[in-house]
Amino acid sequence: MTPTLVRRHPPSATQPTARARDWAEIQERMLVPLYEAVYDRLEVGPATRLLSLGCGSGLALLMAAARGARVCGIDPDARRLDLARERLQPRGELPGGTRLGRGGPETVHAPGTPAFTLVTAFDPLHCAGSTTRSPVRSLVRALTRAAAHAERGTPVVLAGWGPPERCAASGALRVAARLADPVGNPARWRPSGRDDLENLAHHAGLRPDGSGRVACPYGYADMDSALRGLLSTGAFDAAARATDEEQVTKELTEALHPYLRGDGTVWMPNVFRYLIART
């Protein structure tokens, strides 16, 4: 499924609520091919009890629920969770068994309910919205805690960037890392190593059991949409604190220029890798 080009004309990119809305309306859908590939491979359906770590504004949960799965999700961003609730409760009530929260996995696993049969951590920026200085360490802790609420042998899906030479977004994300460096902020992105996901699984006490690659192009209706979408990821927040948002926007625009097409759209081919590990 190719991401739909979206045109946006919002007035204030700096407001957190606007950022969350930009994530939901522009950026989150770029990972739809990844969600579909994983759900197809693992045959997600009515027997699935899914826990999503970093569920964002709930698109991946909605897709799983459409297949009949029972879904729960956690995310550090309360605004994204509000949008997830809007998506999942069109009649004012969350579907039976669905729970969303900002805490650990235990906050969405009600006592006495069946254990989860699938855990996903799709965010390739490794919880870019985390407020901790070590998002990867935070993810390891979340995975370890999630495993305690899952059935033995449950698949845990981790996702990350493919090789930098196959990810057009690499140049844009290097802007974030470079601008954040002067004051010692932790870079929210670096080129993915071949064994990064396997190492992450190992640290969380999980056993690797298969992997795959998926093309997830970033397609935007115009440069404004591209800027709004990428800034909504949280990957550029440390850079904005180290410099200022105007500088980040200027350098990000320059990094995106090679992908600006004659019709004004921005098209960035990317490849993502996912790992299936077992509890």
From TrEMBL:
Listed EC numbers: 2.1.1.-
UniProt keywords, alphabetically: Methyltransferase, Transferase
EC class (word): transferase
SUPFAM superfamilies according to UniProt: S-adenosyl-L-methionine-dependent methyltransferases
Ranges annotated as biased composition (Gly residues): 94-104
Gene Ontology biological process terms in this record: methylation
Record has Transferase as a keyword: yes
Residue span of region Disordered: 88-112
GO MF, one annotated term: methyltransferase activity
Domain Methyltransferase type: 51-144
Domain of life of the organism encoding this protein: Bacteria
This protein's name: Class I SAM-dependent methyltransferase
Organism this protein belongs to: Streptomyces gamaensis
